[in-house]
Amino acid sequence: MNKEWSEKNTEIQKLLGKESTYKDGIDLLINFRNELFEQITFIVNGFPREAFSRMPFAGTDGYHSMTLAYSIWHIFRIEDIAAHTLINNDEQILFTNDFLKNIGSPIITTGNELQGEDIAEFSEKLDINSLYEYAKAVMLSTNDILTKLEYPQLKRRFSDSDKDRLISSECVSTDENAEWLIDYWCGKDVRGLIKMPFCRHWIMHIEAMQRIKNKLCKIARKGVDPVAYCGFSCNHCFLGEWCGSCRTEYNTCSFATCFPDKKCPNVTCCKEKGFDGCYECAEIESCHKGFYIEGNDGANAAKAQAVFIKKYGKKAFLKAHDKLHEKYDFSKTQEILGQDMYEGLKLFEDTYSDNG
Ligand code: SF4
Ligand code: SF4
Question: Which of 221, 246, 262 is the last residue of a domain?
Answer without folding.
Answer: 221
